[in-house]
Design goal:
disordered N terminus; 161 residues; 20% helix; 4-stranded antiparallel beta sheet; 3-stranded antiparallel beta sheet; alpha+beta; Immunoglobulin-like
């Protein structure tokens, strides 16, 4: 146990000695660029097919690989499904755009929210989740949970009623 504490203490002292921790490492940013309900199946196995485009930014001066971004899609306060984005490579002080094609099962509450979207009505959305950073020899720590992004979803109606 003592052998483990010495390297951790040395690393901590080096990070704190060089700069405040908040300036040393910054959390990636997440922004939903677009979200689209492509189709809604109500019979048989009810599902909503959604395309989600997320811009992930890296404010740090070194490249970062996120091994996974795992989040939950919340519509009007209802958890409607999982969004996973594996292997996101971020350039230093740069960004990348990731697309997720989702097939989400519909519950009664989720179905109501997706029907509103399909009719062209607005709903609030939120992505709550975690991300796992690949830090090489330092391991793969998971950060969060955080609210990664939130906003209002409104698109042209895809249902005539």
């Amino acid at each position: 146990m003592r052998l483990l504490l010495l390297p951790v203490a040395a690393l901590s002292a080096a990070v704190v000695g060089c700069a405040p921790l908040q300036q040393a490492v910054q959390v990636p940013t997440f922004e939903v660029q677009s979200v689209r309900l492509n189709s809604l199946t109500l019979l048989g196995n009810p599902t909503a097919n959604v395309t989600l485009r997320v811009k992930v930014g890296n404010p740090n001066p070194v490249p970062v690989r996120l091994a996974n971004i795992a989040s939950r899609l919340i519509l009007d306060g209802q958890d409607v499904g999982t969004v996973n984005l594996p292997n996101v490579n971020l350039p230093a002080r740069g960004e990348t755009v990731q697309d997720a094609n989702l097939s989400l099962p519909l519950s009664l509450n989720a179905g109501a929210a997706f029907l509103n979207i399909a009719r062209g009505q607005q709903v609030s959305y939120r992505l709550d989740g975690t991300f796992t950073a690949d830090l090489g020899v330092l391991g793969q720590p998971t950060f969060g949970p955080f609210t990664l992004s939130q906003g209002v979803w409104k698109q042209p109606a895809i249902l005539p009623f």
